[in-house]
Amino acid sequence: MLMKKIKTVTALFFSPTYTTKKCVVAIAKGVAEGLAAEYRECNITTPLQRRQTPEYGPGDLVVFGVPVYIGRVPNLFRDYFASIKGNGAVGVPVVVYGNRAYDDALIELRDIMQGNGFQCMAAGAFIGEHSFSYTLGGGRPDATDLQKATAFGEEIAGRLLAGAEPYPAAGPRQEGQSCGESAPQVGAEPPRQLQVPGNPYPYTFFDARSGKGKSIDLRKVKPETDPEKCTNCGYCAMLCPMGAIDPDNCSEIPGKCIRCCACVKLCRPKAKYFADETYLEHKAILEEKFTEPRREPEIFW
Ligand SMILES: Cc1cc2nc3c(=O)[nH]c(=O)nc-3n(C[C@H](O)[C@H](O)[C@H](O)COP(=O)(O)O)c2cc1C
User: Fold this and answer.
1) Which of 287, 220, 232, 300 has the alpha carbon at shortest distance from 263?
2) What is the tally of structural domains in the chain?
3) Are the CB atoms for 77 and 47 separated by under 8 Å?
4) Is 70 in the pocket of ligand 1 (CB under 6 A)?
5) Same domain assignment for residues 16 and 44
6) What global pTM score does this model have?
7) Are residues 179 and 46 located together in one domain of the fold?
8) Of 109, 194, 215, 269, which is least surrounded by CB within 10 A?
9) What is the pLDDT of residue 83?
10) pLDDT band with cut points at 50, 70 and 90 for residue 171
11) Would you say residue 285 lies in a domain?
12) How far apart are CA 102 and CA 263, in angstroms?
């Protein structure tokens, strides 16, 4: 029976502001406890943490979580995520989003995992405080979310103990196929695979619009630094997933910013902030349109 082979349960996460980490850790601990397996964490958020690429095997179960960015898996890290080999490990794709929508992110993460040797068992979409805001999804995941996450993990363990088999990993990538996508099915039975919401490849980005209905582009926007508050401690530079902040002068951001808000939310003296008008308008629109209704975690088997 498969579950006998699972010795290690890993919480694997990319999580600049820690909401994804909280959900993934709760799920993975629920599985590990249920299976009496060893529990591990693997944080792949910063360049230092991504210097190595984790690799798994048949004795592993990996709960892999990423935040939803513009309706997708964080785009700039997609190739890195797709290079993490499952080698037959059981996989649980999880996305965490800021109470708007997860669009194609979960199907994309499922495809990335099953395309690189993970046998997906179940998937989840959870809610975290929106990176841009303190009120949109404010304080989430909360205690109820985390209870649901732990219960999800326990149910995965229960099903494995009862002999449930995960869905098979996809075959090797084909010529011209983007990494991890489901193989095209021409006149063949589609393979048995975990069904999750979203459009199959080619996935689409959320088309964010301004109040006047114009498509907005935040790619050049970077946070400002309040010189009165910044102590130049280097913490923001250490946390930045892009390694974009100069560690010797934290108010300088020579690298590319993905607006993950790790530096804004985790700076202890609160020295970093966004002042760009388009960014602030987008944040206000998101808060106005998506704070209600409260979205709830979803689980797929
Ligand atoms: C650039 C960017 C784009 C985002 N796009 C979406 C989105 O399309 N839908 C949504 O509901 N939340 C979106 N969010 C919010 C995050 O998915 C959410 O806050 C998540 O909990 C952050 O995870 P973390 O705490 O692990 O960084 C976005 C956040 C950022 C930084």
Assistant:
1) 232
2) 2
3) no
4) yes
5) yes
6) 0.95
7) yes
8) 215
9) 98
10) low
11) no
12) 23
Comparing 2-6, 57-61, 233-237, the range with the smallest average pLDDT is 2-6
CB atoms within 10 A of CB 206: 16
Which segments of the chain are extended strands (E)? 8-13, 38-43, 60-67, 90-97, 119-120, 123-127, 224-225, 272-273, 298-300
**Residue 144: burial class (beta carbons within 10 Å; 0-12, 13-18, 19+):** exposed
Number of the ligand 1 atom closest to the C-alpha atom of 137: 19
In angstroms, what is the span from residue 34 Cα to ligand 1's centroid? 30
DSSP string for residues in 97-166: E-SS--TTHHHHHHHHHHTTT-EE--EEEEE---TT-SSTTTT-S-HHHHHHHHHHHHHHHHHHHTTPPP
Q: Does 35 share its domain with 165? A: yes
198/236 same-domain check: no
Q: Give the residue whose CA is nearest to atom 1 of ligand 1.
A: 69
Domain that holds residue 109: 2-204+294-300
| 69, 135, 140, 203, best to mutate for ligand 1 pocket (most atoms within 8 Å of CB) | 69
